[in-house]
């Protein structure tokens, strides 16, 4: 098929005619930032990188690529961990980067909705909502770079899913350019619409394999009137789960975040940050960061938090707790949680497993998987943290201090990931709770999905993208594997 | 194609061999309840009605029907308003009624999930959750008869969507028998799972045209610790929307229900109920039923409700208000709201329009559409009520007192529905906010959906059901219309 493709020059000229010369990048130097993922793990090549300025331009780019059978890789902020947003190394693809489509088109504070182009960054979207005294609740580490189109295409999660759901739960309408250039639009801001198949669901979490999301109507929420945050030491993961149960029972739906932090995770981030001390005086093996938010007054919410902690103490679920006395305290607690990821990246040599299991199994899973990993790699630092309230932890064994990152990953990446993923799967869990599949876990799906699931995925793919032009090689393992 | 179909006798014997003779119904008398909708509007015919007892039986029924090219109509509680759950009058279909698959399979109170067979009624599901001190929040009028499978297939809404979302938002996993008998299952209870396309979304709201839902994992919530309910008179729909804004601002996400009730709707239900008086002393044109629920104490929540009402009074948004002083009061307020539908059915001659528009347009829509309908039918009783908080009202002009139902509907059903639906569509609204499409509104989609939307719906249908055997003639207008 490669032989039939237009030459890079032809493609470049065609793209220049559509988006303008200034919005095209070609040649290794100019395309490098777009064909390499931000961790530098996935490196590919592209014929051309285009940065369209409008949905109409995206449509014309896809029409041309469809007619010429040129594969297309959609790209937002390029913050994927799974290699889903960069092309393969065949050099055949056109990368369509949405960064220039970065306008907030409308905010309707009465309807509690915001209409955005796909290239708006998450932090820009959050700020725009805040300016209207509204909350857009998605909260993930890469918010300054990641874009709404990517958040939608990967069904992003983060630290407020417990209260507000994943990105899928936060979208009311989409505009999508289909593989042949047709434009599907449901940018209407309706909370109820049962007129046939809910087509937008197809594109959420599809990682750009079925079309390119160019716009969205997002849900906004009332801003909470008060929040209460505590950094809590617990004896073990089971106690953390039991404490969450108490928090839900005593606060209704006020629990917004419930994040687990293992001792090695805390040590790593405190060392990385340098100037910040643990909120707790003594060393503990397990901590949780709890956040409640509500529409009632702060006094009442703080009383609820104290009630939860006291109930936890009296049942032996809480060993110690620091309650944020100020916004600044709360920010420090959150900073400790949020910097774990960067601290790992700087340390290097971390095996990232992003698993989920039912909440009733998460404690046992963490204990058992840790024990099994430590049998294999006795000195691994068990950096385990994240969204326990959703049954999701980032389970990231880190290299022993005296082993170089490369050696550790070469030796242990495969066996440790397979072990952890396999154990999660055996608990009816997921091998990718929020990071998606990309190319990194594509072939693992043959082990962890049923035959029927794989067949259905291909039936959908072939229905929408029969020529397999949209983000080819991502998400779906080759049929018959 | 009919000529090639097996004879009813052959079909009956085949079905008997799969589900047993006791679980098959044939002949006009025995099938009547299954081929007629509950309002008696849609009457069809079936070769056989089968009541399978297991997913395996459903699978074998569908395998046989697929091999023989026999159309299949899935059926739950048969409470659809749109003719979506009964066969056409060709007499070719096998009706698969799920009523015998009515077991709650598991409740996991730590994971806050419940696994059910599709034939469990909504009220049974709610009761099972309650027995574990949990809430399953879907709340619709037909809860005693409707089934979870039907709730999922129609993405049911109701009076708690404002807080908890539609049925789509309440499901974590599905088991579905596909048109050829294959079984797709994701009954895993995960809140986060980004491993490829979220296939279950295909079947939610598809009205049984892509497969038969046989089981589901549903989300449970903490039971609220307190609730506060008020029956409030407002000057007009715009004031109601502004009051909702105040309620959201002052209570965060405590607003669980915000239901509009027009004067003719209240009159109708008070007359119907006989022994219940209006909660308000004076007559008003517009009322709203407001419910707050929260995890904090009742005192604090009542204070929030009073703060909302006082703010409303001071801004002229509230004319009068009755606050429920007891559970019994709250039940009475709710009964008034919930009996409106039955009161209409008994009165007869109501043109049911189930429309939604963005919340910022709902007040203008109600005013303008009412005026336009009254120009056509000056004595129509404007029964308008429902889920204003979601931008959704049941906009149901009712026959004048002195005009028989049949005459009124013959004369006005078509022009009034077309007027109201057209006005909703012009406001970027939906012509079926929660009732679905069935056969009743199928052909209207050609007017209100874009060509791309209709094409995509057919692309999905043909991918999953290429022989068009599952609930044929429902939801999708014939291509090329």
TrEMBL record, chains A, B:
The keyword Oxidoreductase applies. Keywords: FAD, Flavoprotein, Oxidoreductase. Its cofactor is FAD. Gene3D superfamilies: 3.30.465.10, 3.30.70.2190, 3.30.70.2740, Uridine Diphospho-n-acetylenolpyruvylglucosamine Reductase, domain 2 (3.30.43.10), Vanillyl-alcohol Oxidase, Chain A, domain 4 (1.10.45.10). PROSITE patterns: FAD_PCMH (PS51387). GO terms for biological process: respiratory electron transport chain. It comes from Cupriavidus taiwanensis (strain DSM 17343 / BCRC 17206 / CCUG 44338 / CIP 107171 / LMG 19424 / R1). This is FAD-dependent OXIDOREDUCTASE PROTEIN similar to D-lactate dehydrogenase. GO terms for molecular function: D-lactate dehydrogenase (cytochrome) activity; FAD binding. The keyword Flavoprotein applies. Its EC number is 1.1.2.4. Belongs to the FAD-binding oxidoreductase/transferase type 4 family. Residues 42-223 form the FAD-binding PCMH-type domain.
